[in-house]
Amino acid sequence: MKAGLHFVDGGTACAEGAIYAGCRFFAGYPITPATSIVEWMAKRLPQKKGYYLQMEDEIASIAAIIGASWAGGKAMTATSGPGFSLMQENLGYAYLTETPLVVVDAQRSGPSTGQATMPGQQDIMQARYGTHGDVAPIAFCPWSVQEMFEFTIHAFNYAERFRTPTLVMTDGEISYMREALQIPKSGEFPVIDRQRLTKKHSSPDEIFLRYEMPRFGDGMNLLVTGSAHRPTGVRDYTPHFHRATINWLFEKSRQAGVALNAEGLDVDVLHLDSASTAVLSFGASARPAYQAVLTARKNGSDVGFVRLKTLWPLPEQRLLEVFANVQRIFVVEMNMGMMVNEIARIAKHATVVSIPKVAGEVHQSSEILDRIMEDESV
Amino acid sequence: MTQPNPSIGKSQRYYRETYLRNLPSAFCAGCGNGTILNAFVRAVDELITAKELKQQDILAISGIGCSAWIPSPHFRGDTLHTTHGRPIAFATGAKVMNPKLNVVVFTGDGDGAAIGGNHLIHAARRNIPMTVILVNNLNYGMTGGQSAPTTPLHVQTSTYPQHPEAPFDLTRLVEGAGASFIARWTTFYVDELIRTIKDAMLHPGFAFIEIIAQCPTYAARFLTEYQGTLSPDEREQYRRHPGAWMLKALKGKKKGEALGYPRYQLTLKDTLMELGIFKREQRPTLIDHLQGLWGLTEVDK
């Protein structure tokens, strides 16, 4: 798409963001509500001399993008809950082998087939803890079509910069919703390209525990394995080596958290200056939550609004500062209450109230407002 | 058969130092995987010597199980040791992203025919250019001799006193799926194997080689039991060298020639199987079709 103003759905915006970021390989499997991403990538990639592959399942999809990433390409896949579940094992492989790639999960209401096609936010803990073993993910959470475009680019940037898989945890609502999308000119929006490890770097044999990423076919004799390994890739189960690897994965996530904060990509805080009550939300449910906050303020209640732009790493220190003078926090999310437990753990001084919804539909702002007012009047 | 032997003048040390990493082998004494690594390295050496390919273009990908350890960590070249059953899917992404790579997948009967069977048939259907070397040792060796989809009916495994399922014929499976190069050997036929690996690596399409290999630790046991009463002398031979004992069972009877290779017949347990090259034909590959999409649609909207 040309630079300028467009009217598109979130999935198309996500795919355009990927193209803008330089993605040239996409492997996927049809699943709603990620279909519009897949279809747009299928159309756009051949125009860019890139490759779209429809694989036999989601396990193969993520496997193929890992292979493509090691072959030197920026690569992505997109799916929804059932496919995200199938991808978990190979996602763990990508974390351990420090493979840059992007996985988009357009969440739908589960478990299982659930309310297929209808939005949910029930995979957010799966994004954090879904694969076996210890990992430290980076997960973006857009709330608009514009952010679908921008956060997909950020996801690629963070994947390349920190040599790790990154996630875009969107949902069926944002994926299918149509809104204005402003596409910047080429070069206007920052795109980070891969730092390639070559024989010219110092200790090029050490292909892991570093930010530079090598590529197949360069004569580097790469030894890549999902087993515990030394920095050279040689399989080694000694406690020292595996501890160093896992510590490194967590250190990268910590550094990513610092960068997200510096770039203003961690949280969005509005009207919280003097408010003692705050509403926290993310993704599609943040839209009615914000509407409820505006209405409450119009009605004279001093209520502030906090939106998570990245779910993981959770900006714990920042949230603690933001909530320093807040006594009551309402957490609005399309699940039975997942993020609310994290917020309660962080903001121990405040009363944390869950406003969950499992229905395959976004909260009405009136539902949220009523719940806030109920407590205000007590 | 009068061609000069390309390995003349090359020492074991040459192959080891040129193509292998100096790491200890994890294979059981008598395992067929060493033979397969040897055949692979010799095939690669012949191709490189003949300037058919460069060592840096070879990418060896493997899954999980004994077969996965043939290239990783032993082969001195790019290797990708992936998750259980998925090496062909990883290989698909790497090959499509960089079609210059000569991709060789090492998989096993558990890895490639059970958990990864779906990826195998779809890769054959797509005719994606790669060589799949499926090492069939008739059981799960790494985890302790459990039943596999290739285990002969009614043998005793760690999971069944009498294995209750019929085995796959993998060459016919991939033929049905559309593979364009299909071969089967056992580790007994090393020379044929080297030639076949060379042909497969140069084949422009999906090449499948099943290699039936001896598993001295587990499968040799059930094949011995099947062979019934052994003399005390034979029993001693088996006890000392189970790999060699099983390898004897992997020698077939010559039955003519086809596609430039000899054919053999082998009866393993009750299953009669053919050894040789079964198919070698060219048809457009997945890469051809994908690149054919370039420029089909207008560039911008």
Q: Could you characterize what this model shows?
A:
The complex is a heterodimer of chains A (378) and B (301). Chain A is built from 12 helices and 16 strands. By secondary structure, chain A is an alpha/beta fold. Chain A folds into 2 domains: 1-265, 3-Layer(aba) Sandwich (Rossmann fold); 267-377, 3-Layer(aba) Sandwich (Rossmann fold). In chain A, helix 1 (10-21) runs parallel beside helix 6 and helix 9 packs across helix 12 (365-377). Chain B is of the alpha/beta class and 301 residues long. Chain B has a single domain, classed as Rossmann fold, CATH 3.40.50. Chain B has 11 helices and 9 strands. Chain B has helices spanning 12-19, 33-49, 87-97, 109-115, 117-126, 170-177, 190-202, 219-226, 232-240, 242-249, 286-291; strands at residues 58-62, 78-81, 102-108, 130-136, 181-186, 206-212, 253-258, 261-268, 271-280. Chain B has a 9-stranded mixed sheet, with helices on both faces. In chain B, helix 7 (190-202) links the parallel strand 5 (181-186) and strand 6 (206-212). The longest helix of chain B has 17 residues, at 33-49. Chain B is globular and about 75 Å long. Chain B starts with 11 loop residues before the first helix and ends in a 10-residue tail after the last helix. Classes of the chains: A alpha/beta (378), B alpha/beta (301). The interface between A and B is large, with 47 and 43 residues.
Q: Give the averaged pLDDT of chain A, no decimals.
A: 97
Radius of gyration of chain B: 19 Å
CATH architecture of chain B: 3-Layer(aba) Sandwich
Kindly identify the CATH topology of chain B: Rossmann fold
Number of strands of chain B: 9
State the largest interface.
A-B, 47 and 43 residues
Measured distance between first and last alpha carbons of chain A: 53 Å
Can you write the helix and strand succession of chain A as a string? EHEHEHEHEEHEHEHEEHEEHEEHEHEH
Q: Please report the first level of CATH classification, the CATH class of the largest domain in chain A.
A: Alpha Beta
Counting DSSP H or I runs of 4 or more residues, the number of helices of chain B is: 11
Q: Determine the number of helices of chain A (DSSP H or I, runs of at least 4 residues).
A: 12
Provide the number of structural domains of chain A: 2
Classification by helices and strands of chain A: alpha/beta
Oligomeric state of the chains in view:
heterodimer
How many beta-strand elements of chain A?
A: 16
CATH superfamily assignment of the largest domain in chain A?
A: Thiamin diphosphate (ThDP)-binding fold, Pyr/PP domains
CATH class of chain B: Alpha Beta
Name the shape of chain B in a single word: globular
Q: What topology, given as strand order, has the largest sheet of chain B?
A: 2-1-3-4-6-5-9-8-7
First-last Cα distance of chain B: 61 Å
